Amino acid sequence: MYVNTPIVTLNNTIDMPLLGLGVYAPKHNSEVQQAVEWALEAGCRLIDTASAYGNEREVADALRASGLPRQEVFITTKVWNDDQGYDKTLRAFDRSAEKLRLDVIDLYLIHWPSSPHRLDTWRALEKLYTDGRVRAIGVSNYYQTHMDELLERATIVPAVNQFEFSPYCYLPDILAYCRKKGIQPEGYAPLVRGEKQNDPRLVAIAEKYGKSTYQILVRWSMQHGVVTIPKSVKRERIRENFDVFDFVISEADMAELNTFYDNTRVAPDPRDIL
């Protein structure tokens, strides 16, 4: 289904590519269609968008321009905080589906656990799933307390939990939690928006493998079994981010990278959300 792309199998038996493209690009939305086209050309088969990104139409245009069969590209979008609640979520989904020009969306996520209506939002996602309008449902930016609350009430276990993930934001407990519950972890901002590209420790490891620091960060995330969605609107960077299948980071270097945690984040810390 996803040619030449490693996959993971979700808890409902749906296959999902292990590496994709994130399209959060508020200053570059006019470039998103081209970026998605370049990514698909490079072998990418997972595109991660959201209603809040304002570029679902551009993703749809790129998918159409690529000429790829619909079933070969995995599309994720998300419901934003202002649209949470049972009925509002159903309406938000309809808007996203219309913009994406899709009858069925592969993965639909709650973007943040910020809304007091988040349990009703999940109920709406369960309806969308049972109605066959989405192939999988999940959450984003949920840590253990949010997951515990959700799982107490959910009738469907989330297939995916997407959260910020890099060596500098590495919390093994949430990975272990997801694995115990059968939830696939997915990591955004693996490149830390370039903030750490000159970290001497990272540079030294990259030089050892003849790779860029960005490629090391992507590969590290993937070797943790985490679906990884680096963001870029630059053709060469997109190609570079997908040129990560010809090497393996050693156990010793993985262990060293695991020690880089300093809670550097590009998004708010979900642990601050009650």
From TrEMBL:
The record marks 78 as: Lowers pKa of active site Tyr. Substrate binds at residue 111. GO terms for molecular function: oxidoreductase activity, acting on the CH-OH group of donors, NAD or NADP as acceptor. Residues 25-260 form the NADP-dependent oxidoreductase domain. PROSITE patterns: ALDOKETO_REDUCTASE_2 (PS00062), ALDOKETO_REDUCTASE_3 (PS00063). InterPro entries: AKR (IPR020471), Aldo/ket_reductase_CS (IPR018170), NAD(P)_OxRdtase_dom_sf (IPR036812), NADP_OxRdtase_dom (IPR023210). The keyword Oxidoreductase applies. It comes from the Bacteria. The active site is at 53 (proton donor). CDD domains: AKR_AKR1-5-like. Keywords: NADP, Oxidoreductase. Belongs to the aldo/keto reductase family. This is Glyoxal reductase.
